């Protein structure tokens, strides 16, 4: 059975970014695991249109699977911008550093109650990249933990606008 989840937060789209580079655009979007694969696995993700642009609406479709029942947990998202202030010097400006109750977000975005049962899930959403974002390099880290603090999924991301 496949369940459709419609997340409303731009944050939710960031924690599942996959490797992708648009032909000839020079704009990149990449991710890597920050831990061993956990209970939740990202199977695929699609973005339309690509490259992503400031102020532009985009859609993503992601396929996730979970091997265990998730009763409760926490979702932690951090997103920052790298501001170059000199030739070899830069500072990071954090836009998002948020901890969200995993089940509250699950209920709000999917309409399904916790516990999340083992299975395959499709997440789809249309979001707009905020105009407050400036051209440059963005970095992020997203982690989901179960109620015991065990890591479910962790990803580091990098993209440019």
TrEMBL record:
<dbReference type="InterPro" id="IPR014756">
    <property type="entry name" value="Ig_E-set"/>
</dbReference>
<keyword id="KW-0732">Signal</keyword>
<protein>
    <recommendedName>
        <fullName>MD-2-related lipid-recognition domain-containing protein</fullName>
    </recommendedName>
</protein>
<feature type="signal peptide">
    <location>
        <begin position="1"/>
        <end position="24"/>
    </location>
</feature>
<feature type="domain" description="MD-2-related lipid-recognition">
    <location>
        <begin position="31"/>
        <end position="159"/>
    </location>
</feature>
<dbReference type="InterPro" id="IPR036846">
    <property type="entry name" value="GM2-AP_sf"/>
</dbReference>
<dbReference type="InterPro" id="IPR003172">
    <property type="entry name" value="ML_dom"/>
</dbReference>
<dbReference type="Pfam" id="PF02221">
    <property type="entry name" value="E1_DerP2_DerF2"/>
</dbReference>
């Amino acid at each position: 059975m496949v369940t459709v989840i419609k997340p409303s937060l731009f944050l939710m789209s960031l924690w599942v970014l996959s490797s992708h580079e648009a032909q000839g655009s020079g704009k990149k979007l990449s991710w890597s695991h920050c831990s061993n694969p956990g209970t939740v696995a990202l199977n695929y993700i699609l973005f339309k249109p690509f490259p992503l642009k400031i102020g532009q609406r985009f859609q993503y479709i992601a396929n996730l699977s979970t091997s265990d029942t998730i009763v409760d947990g926490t979702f932690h998202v951090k997103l920052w911008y790298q501001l170059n202030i000199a030739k070899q010097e830069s500072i990071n400006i954090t836009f998002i550093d948020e901890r969200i109750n995993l089940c509250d977000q699950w209920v709000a975005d999917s309409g399904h109650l916790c516990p999340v049962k083992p299975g395959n899930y499709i997440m789809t959403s249309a979001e707009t990249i905020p105009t407050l974002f400036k051209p440059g390099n963005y970095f992020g880290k997203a982690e989901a933990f179960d109620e015991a603090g065990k890591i479910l999924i962790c990803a580091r991301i990098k993209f440019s606008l």
